[in-house]
């Protein structure tokens, strides 16, 4: 499926003149300079990163740039979701403008989804659009946020409400940088990997059931899992670049997941995004069983795999008190906007057979949540 | 050239799926609701405007929206260039998010270029892109800033350095709203109208020589001049949507003009943008004469027309002291970035025959400026 060069997989995201490569493989960071220079010769680089990632991986990147004769300047931001704010956006924009780089120069995002989303937005608005290279360092960023061109920051009105679509020129996913990620962060990112199998790749889900330990351990299976995930996301995005239709499938597990994130006050000690998605996917399958769309066997198989990897699947797996079903439904309604009492949900007819349901009665959701809580 | 409906001229800007209409004519503001509803049925409207324009024209717009059953919310910003800042951008974004409008709803810019540039940027980044309608109320905005999709704000590092390309769904240019514009603002906008004739429409320039008084007075000639100007800008933009090549022709008069704006500290009491452009265009023609590219007759004819309308054409027309030639050259070099002592300039071979010269020695520019000061 993916043409390999040595251990490196190359995936081409076809978006006409904005097509780009995703490279996935071990120790790619050491080749970052060469890969960037091959595509953007002589470019100047503005690196944005966070303090955790900088401590572990920044010098590998800057050494690689130096070796390829590319000049760079770096800004290190605090780690964490709070960095996706107007304040840090403006600071980063000011940093890039201060380097006097031009539109043809490049912003490099070295970090997880937070750095990727912020840096892509910066690249999208400085001089009305600079070049952009993603070097995702979390599993979530490698399989999800670095693909698709969505960039942005949060607002007091909600998450990811301010941003632009801005495609990168290149995505460099070094599978070994993930070795410094905490087990919990890795596992949370893995929930999104499982999601792709559940959306429309039953074979991939089966492969994950057999190979997840190798994916966690960092063998070549890790690169394979990341490549298939990126391909799956890129396929959906290519069908729907600006997010009006099919892209909604990527929200499998996210409607319930976001409600749980809201209900736990986005407190990462209690729940991180991928954990919410894991519970959300398990719930989406069980809810589909309840609506007679999915077999109980498939729902149990999904749950069993998530449990095997250490991911939560039940509301009771979240430490601390959960609000009652009614309150959870309110979070869902806030997230999705109710149309005449009906909600849009991603449901499934079984493993790898998810679909968009646009008319799920909120009364059914409430009844289901009452059973769960 | 422009299909008319009654007094209204309709121009189609062809940009594939992002194509849109520019409507130009008297009292169009009264029809704004109907025209918007015809293209964006049932849309909710977030109006951004400035205090000067709100006092004169806001109620006409909101009455028209109400008549067309479109709901709206309004934010009135201070008038003036300072409003094109990160602070007002964030305030406007927050206002639009606070209305809970969706991606399919519309931001309406009612005002001059400042409001248009800011509002377009807001529309471009709220929810990664909302609909956008321009209702330009200054002549400059009608003939220049409302066409082409450039939006943005200023930074401490320079003007218009932060922004996006975001095309409107519709531009409504009411030729009568210009009647409340000050004579000086109207005249400054007129300099940009003359620019289009000088770029590549010698017949239009000749027509302006004969009809400029009717354009100023507000007859049907005003609509004609605006329509031709928009067509000229749209043609250049269609050839070069993201500004890498031909679009540079639109900078005729602007290299010298920006230097003068810089040298006068952007003090609008001394010089407004269009006045700088008028002087810049006169200088560009005289400089082309000096370089043996243009006849002295043509340069004099350009100057005579600008003088007839009351526009400045000489450095000495600017009240207060001008810095010496060396300092002006520094402003030019800052604006254009010098490549090995050579500058890119828009020069001309005569009226309507301008061209991009990429290798003008800065020594020639300096010598010319010494003659002028
Ligand atoms: N743009 C999109 O399409 C999209 C899709 C999904 C998620 N997102 C966004 O992504 C963000 C979440 O991404 P995330 O989970 O990567 O969060 P993150 O960027 O905050 O990274 C998680 C933590 O891991 C640390 N980290 C990252 N790489 C590391 C490494 N190699 N070694 C050690 N520590 C490392 C970070 O410093 C941080 O503390 C959210 O803001 C979400 O909205 C965006
Ligand atoms: N986006 C582009 O392609 C582009 C092109 C050229 C210029 N611009 C930008 O446009 C801006 C200048 O535009 P401008 O000259 O319209 O400035 P402006 O918006 O500040 O308007 C000038 C003044 O006229 C007032 N005004 C506007 N319409 C009026 C009316 N009908 N009656 C009474 N008063 C009215 C305004 O309140 C303001 O005080 C600059 O910021 C420039 O960078 C952008
Ligand atoms: Zn997710
Ligand atoms: Zn101008």
How does this structure look, described?
The structure is a homodimer of 373-residue chains. Chain A is an alpha/beta fold. Chain A has two domains: 9-181, Rossmann fold (3-Layer(aba) Sandwich); 184-372, Up-down Bundle (Dehydroquinate synthase-like, alpha domain). Chain A contains 13 helices and twelve strands. In chain A, the strands form three sheets. Chain A has an eight-stranded mixed β-sheet, sandwiched between helices. Chain A has a two-stranded antiparallel ribbon with strand order 8-9. Chain A is globular and about 60 Å long. At the A-B interface, helix 3 and strand 9 of A face helix 3 and strand 9 of B. The complex binds nicotinamide-adenine-dinucleotide (2 copies) and zinc ion (2 copies). Residues 144, 192, 254, 273, 277 of chain A line the site of one zinc ion (ZN).
How would a crystallographer describe the biggest sheet of chain A? 8 strands, mixed
Summarize model confidence as the mean pLDDT of chain A. 93
Count structural domains of chain A. Answer: 2
Level-1 CATH class name of the largest domain in chain A: Mainly Alpha
Cofactor (chains A, B): NAD(+); Zn(2+); Co(2+)
Domain 3-dehydroquinate synthase N-terminal (chains A, B): 76-187
Pathway (chains A, B): Metabolic intermediate biosynthesis; chorismate biosynthesis; chorismate from D-erythrose 4-phosphate and phosphoenolpyruvate: step 2/7
Family (chains A, B): Belongs to the sugar phosphate cyclases superfamily. Dehydroquinate synthase family.
């Amino acid at each position: 499926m993916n043409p390999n060069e040595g251990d490196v997989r190359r995936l081409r995201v076809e978006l006409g003149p904005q097509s780009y490569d995703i490279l996935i493989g071990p120790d790619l960071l050491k080749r970052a300079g060469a890969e960037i220079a091959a595509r953007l010769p002589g470019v100047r680089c503005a690196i944005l990163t966070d303090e955790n990632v900088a401590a572990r991986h920044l010098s590998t990147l800057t050494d690689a740039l130096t070796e390829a004769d590319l000049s760079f300047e770096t800004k290190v931001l605090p780690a964490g979701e709070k960095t996706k704010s107007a304040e840090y956006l403006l600071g980063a924009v000011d940093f890039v403008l201060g380097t006097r780089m031009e539109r043809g120069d490049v912003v490099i995002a070295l970090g997880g989804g937070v750095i990727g989303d912020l840096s892509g937005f910066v690249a999208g608005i400085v001089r009305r659009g600079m070049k952009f290279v993603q070097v995702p360092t979390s599993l979530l960023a490698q399989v999800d946020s670095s693909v698709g061109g969505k960039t942005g920051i949060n607002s007091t009105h909600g998450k990811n409400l301010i941003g632009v679509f801005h495609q990168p020129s290149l995505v460099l996913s070094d599978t070994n940088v993930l070795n410094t990620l905490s087990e919990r962060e890795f596992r949370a990112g893995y929930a999104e990997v499982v999601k792709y199998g559940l959306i429309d790749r039953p074979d991939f889900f089966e492969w994950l059931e057999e190979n997840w330990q190798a994916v966690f351990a960092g063998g070549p299976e890790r690169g394979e899992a990341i490549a298939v995930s990126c391909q799956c996301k890129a396929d959906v995005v290519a069908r729907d670049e600006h997010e009006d239709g099919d892209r909604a499938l990527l929200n499998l597990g996210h409607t319930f997941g976001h409600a749980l994130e809201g209900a736990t006050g986005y407190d990462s000690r209690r729940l991180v995004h991928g954990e919410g998605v894991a519970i959300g996917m398990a719930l989406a399958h069980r809810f589909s069983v309840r609506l007679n769309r999915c077999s109980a066997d498939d729902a149990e198989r999904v749950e069993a795999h998530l449990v095997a990897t250490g991911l939560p699947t039940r509301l009771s797996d979240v430490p601390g008190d959960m609000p009652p079903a009614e309150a959870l439904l309110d979070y869902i309604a806030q997230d999705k906007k109710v149309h005449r009492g009906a909600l849009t949900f991603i449901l499934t007819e079984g493993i790898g057979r998810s679909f968009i349901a646009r008319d799920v009665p909120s009364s059914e959701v409430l009844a289901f949540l009452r059973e769960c809580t």
